[in-house]
Amino acid sequence: MTKPQTQPIGILGGTFDPIHQGHLQIALIALQQLHLQKIHFIPCFQPPHRNQPIASPNDRLAMVKLAIGNNTAFNADDREIKRGNISYTIDTLKSLRQDYPDTPLCLIIGTDAFQELQQWHHWKELIDYAHLVVMYRQTDQPQQSNALIENKFSGLEQIDSSSLEFPLGGGEPSLRSVLCIHDSSKRGSQQRGKPKCEECIFTWAQPHVTEDISDLSHYRKGVIYFLMINPILISATKIRNKIKARSQNLKNELPGKVLDYIKTHHLYSANSK
After folding, report:
1. pTM for the full model?
2. pLDDT tens-digit series, residues 116-152
């Protein structure tokens, strides 16, 4: 029997403080490569594991709306701002599932977030409501070696290259190797109290990982899929610092209307809160 197929809806959350070209590029790649019908940009009210964003929730929502413009495949979703309090992803997924009971949902995250998934509120329940799409950088791809081959999980020998924006070239990465390489390149050394690549996340993730991109459409939830990208390396923190230093070199990092909004409302400047 042929499994039913429905175009999934992508979910891209964050502080968006401010939203920048890197966010938009990730969304466009996900839209095209994952065959999504649309993507919800969901600015949080208060992130669980970070300080309160610099810009107000309403300003960040306004910038998201300006950034996506008239693109009908992008939606500025204010449900976390309306809900207030700490923005737990599990609550957002439950809300989206009520709105879209029969549509596949794809929560789009990076390897850094996936690696720290155990810190999320009710993290094991996330795949009860959505798929997880883990985007990892092309620069995270490990070199082929006997050690990495030995670390591959059974059933994870290959990630479907037809789903990737850029060809893998050398040996395809495993779940463990992608996360370990990412962690070592980002942090350089292990942080006290925050072990790298905890075994529990691999044990939990392994049965849910798929190589078949069509599973994202065939099932409403429960799948973990890895997508390699080559993103524009843009940092919201560096953008804010540039604005504070009155740098004029931001046209390649911010959509024009977002930059105008920031200037008009004096966001992130030395005189702002």
Report:
1. 0.81
2. 999 999 999 999 999 999 998 865 543 322 222 233 3
Distance CA 214, CA 6 (A): 10
Q: Where are the beta strands (DSSP E) in 85-232?
A: 105-110, 131-137, 224-229
CATH of the domain at 203: 3.40.50.620
Q: Which residue has the higher pLDDT, 154 or 12?
A: 12
**In angstroms, what CA-CA distances link 262 with 104, 185, 212, 270?**
35, 32, 42, 13
Backbone torsions φ then ψ of 267, nearest 5 degrees: -80, 145
Question: Domain limits at 160?
Answer: 9-234
| Helix orientation angle between 256-264 and 57-68, rounded to the nearest 10 degrees | 150
Tell whether 261 is covered by a domain: no
> What is the distance between the alpha carbons of residues 255 and 125, in angstroms, rounded to a whole number?
35
The pairing of strands 105-110 and 9-14 is: parallel
98: tokens are 């009520």
In this structure, is residue 258 part of a structural domain?
A: no
Kindly state whether residue 269 falls inside one of the protein's structural domains: no
Residue 124 is classified by DSSP as: G
149-196 pLDDT, tens digit per residue, is 233 322 322 323 232 232 222 334 556 655 554 444 444 444 444 444
> Nearest to residue 140, comparing CAs of 162, 170, 118?
170
